[in-house]
Amino acid sequence: CKYPINTGPCAEWTQHWFYNWKTSECESLNFGGCYGNGNNFEKKTECEE
């Protein structure tokens, strides 16, 4: 997944995960709770699939 990291414009911060295609690893991000894109996962295991 090559979507860029997108934390979303809202402010209900929770830990989510995104796939960093440059490092080939799932990394955590602070997600604002709304919008985002297809490279945004609630669980690390979902990101790793």
UniProtKB/TrEMBL annotation:
Q: Where is the BPTI/Kunitz inhibitor domain?
A: 1-49
What GO terms are given for molecular function? serine-type endopeptidase inhibitor activity
Indicate yes or no for the key word Cytoplasm.
no
Gene Ontology cellular-component annotations? extracellular space
Leader sequence segment: none
Database matches in CDD domains? Kunitz-type
Q: Which Gene3D superfamilies match?
A: Pancreatic trypsin inhibitor Kunitz domain (4.10.410.10)
Question: Quick check: keyword Disulfide bond in the entry?
Answer: yes
Q: Which UniProt keyword terms apply here?
A: Disulfide bond, Protease inhibitor, Serine protease inhibitor
SMART domains per the UniProt record, alphabetical: KU
The protein here is known as BPTI/Kunitz inhibitor domain-containing protein
Q: Report the source organism.
A: Bos mutus
